[in-house]
Write a structure and sequence with these properties.
The protein is an alpha+beta fold and about 200 residues long. It has helices at about 25-40, 75-80, 140-150, 165-175, and strands spanning about 5, 45, 55-60, 85-95, 100-105, 110-115, 120-125, 130-140, 185-190. The chain contains four helices and nine strands; from the N terminus they run E-H-E-E-H-E-E-E-E-E-H-H-E. The radius of gyration is 17 Å and the shape is globular. It catalyses: N-terminal N-formyl-L-methionyl-[peptide] + H2O = N-terminal L-methionyl-[peptide] + formate.
Length: about 200
């Protein structure tokens, strides 16, 4: 089932998400719905807060990046096979010289900005079978994980921009909150309270 993507301005996107247990209700169905919703919106990652659930879960399929001509050969292979479910993840290490890359977000359509992130991470998480995994990732795989991990920490990529850049995109962000944006996937916009 395709779930609506929560739009910028919804409080769930700014909340630190809670860990879940193995017996979380209908977890497999939720994961399948998240995959379907992400693919429907042409995304490479989707975090549970983006479908309105403040839990520590995200899915990633970075294979679309494998077609990028600028990739080195081993990174292309790594991205082609990079499809994961992350449950209760913890980034235990980030290192390397920060590099910028133009990022976007399904919750913030039509806004793309350069964001600096460190190139290497070590992460512990539970997979879809609730088996513990530890992985060291680099390059675009690490970046996509960091972006989705930020979501479960209540951080959006726009929070990482300079105050000047945030001022420049403020109008676009306000329009997204008000539902004044055209997308080809289902979205849920925050309910604006009427002023009295």
């Amino acid at each position: 089932m395709i779930l609506p993507i929560v739009a910028y301005g919804d409080p769930v996107l700014k909340r630190k998400a809670k860990e879940i247990q193995k017996d979380y209700p209908k977890l497999d169905t939720l994961i399948e719905n998240m995959w379907e919703s992400m693919y429907n919106a042409h995304g490479v990652g989707l975090a549970a807060p983006q479908v309105g659930l403040s839990i520590r879960l995200f899915v990633i399929d970075a294979s679309p990046f494998a077609e990028d001509d600028d990739l080195i050969e081993n990174e292309e292979t790594e991205l082609k096979d990079f499809k994961r479910v992350f449950i209760n993840p913890v980034i235990i290490e980030e290192n390397g010289d920060a590099w910028d890359f133009n990022e976007g977000c399904l919750s913030i359509p039509d806004v793309r900005e350069d964001v600096f992130r460190q190139p290497n991470i070590k992460i512990e998480y539970y997979d879809q079978n609730f088996e513990k995994q530890t992985e060291e990732l680099s390059g675009l795989a690490a970046r996509v994980v960091q972006h989705e991990y930020d979501h479960i920490e209540g951080i959006l990529f726009t929070d990482k921009l300079s105050s000047l850049k945030r001022k420049l995109i403020k109008g676009k962000l306000n329009n997204i909150t008000k539902g004044k944006v055209k997308v080809d996937y289902r979205m849920r916009f925050p309910q604006l309270k009427k002023r009295r």
